Amino acid sequence: MVPGSLLLPIGCLIVGWTSEAHTHWIAVDIGMALVGTGIILSFQCIQTYILECFQLHAASAIAAVAFLRSLASFGFPLFAPAMYDALGFGNGNTVLAVAANVLGCPAPWIFWYYGERIRNSSRHAH
């Protein structure tokens, strides 16, 4: 999860600023490859963590995570056009990269150090 949490914001910055500067298309594609890799790595690690923690209730836990992910997917198009109109691609993706850093980068360390305590606080986790 650590590489994914680092690749996602780096990719966001590359995509935003190479789009803003109208550089060669391969630079934007490299950034998108990093974004996609970061998302997939993080997603797979989160899914595995949920499956391992909630073995008996894995289907419900995965459904809850999918529901929250779908809410985020629903909400982003509501504010993204206004954000990109106001800030441009570079600054808009910088906002996304900062949000990914604030939310995503501490997550692996929190689960590493406090994961057992988090699992023990749930009566459904093993």
From TrEMBL:
InterPro entries: MFS_trans_sf. GO terms for molecular function: transmembrane transporter activity. Keywords: Membrane, Transmembrane, Transmembrane helix. The chain crosses the membrane at residues 31-51, 58-80, 92-114. GO terms for cellular component: membrane. It is a multi-pass membrane protein. It is found in: Membrane. PANTHER family: MAJOR FACILITATOR SUPERFAMILY (PTHR23502), MAJOR FACILITATOR SUPERFAMILY (MFS) PROFILE DOMAIN-CONTAINING PROTEIN-RELATED (PTHR23502:SF60). This is Major facilitator superfamily (MFS) profile domain-containing protein. It comes from Suillus plorans.
